[in-house]
Amino acid sequence: MHVVPDRTLGDHPPLDVLLVPGGRGAREIEPRNPAITGWIAETAAQASWVVGVCTGAFLLHAAGPARGRRVATHRDYEDALEARGDVTVVRDARYVVDGDLLTTQGVSAGIDGALWLVGRLHGREHARAVRREIQYDPAPPYLADEPL
């Protein structure tokens, strides 16, 4: 699979929502890349909403938008993000809203956060319609109190 962008960092329209995904690069490599962190800082300052999914919070911290704020990130990396300082990691919260910043723990928590944002932007009924359309009705198997 190849992912090919339609635009570059310097050639895109204004963004209403800046979404920063997580992953190994987001927590280990790109926080040290001034081209990426500079673009995030500049774009976040103009966006209506800034969203970090999973360890995307590391990039948002490095770029500035998460500094001094309450955030969520993947549970395996909460301590590492908190150790960077100037951030409050909220544990056991699937998503956290702090002003115009929305951060989520992991993949499925990203869906929860995205639905919250859809509701905020377009109303609760629209968010419910989106949830129905994507058939998101969590019913995970193997819950602790279920017999095998």
UniProtKB/TrEMBL annotation:
The lineage of its organism: Bacteria, Bacillati, Actinomycetota, Actinomycetes, Streptosporangiales. CDD domains: GATase1_PfpI_2. PANTHER family: ARAC-FAMILY TRANSCRIPTIONAL REGULATOR, HTH-TYPE TRANSCRIPTIONAL REGULATOR RV1931C. Coiled coil: none annotated. InterPro entries: Class_I_gatase-like, DJ-1/PfpI, INH-QAR. Residues 1-112 form the DJ-1/PfpI domain. This is DJ-1/PfpI domain-containing protein.
